[in-house]
């Protein structure tokens, strides 16, 4: 499901699959967006769509916000790393358990009651397709924990640590390259 506000902010949802990555008490990791896969609204994010936005945020010393259900009044943590790889937009961060909603989010994640990530963004450049749009450039504003994801086929990686994260990244890139070779 895509949602558009009066300010042109769009949102996309994504699933954590079987392994919502909780490292220690608060760490979380996953894919907030997957390249080349149509979401439930028919939109497909193209590889490289986030590059300019992430570079601009970095140059300004700013970060993408971690929100609860896209509510700007409810930040629940911080994203320590957001990057594009061959698979999609990978995020890794910390939910702040000292924040009331953060503590609730952790409890819900651990219980499996919520399992989604969602992006809040503005489309900068897109092309019409027979199914919807090919999103070529996106200005990323926030990544939220949500109840209902837009892109159910996306997967989460375990956020147990740097070594596990590097292994997951290498495996994801190898699988993406193998898929590309088959097509």
Automatic annotation (TrEMBL):
It comes from the Bacteria. InterPro entries: Peptidase_S78_dom (IPR054613), Prohead_protease (IPR006433). Residues 25-158 form the Prohead serine protease domain. GO terms for biological process: proteolysis. Keywords: Hydrolase, Protease, Viral release from host cell. The keyword Hydrolase applies. This is HK97 family phage prohead protease. One of its GO terms (molecular function) is peptidase activity. NCBIfam families: proheadase_HK97.
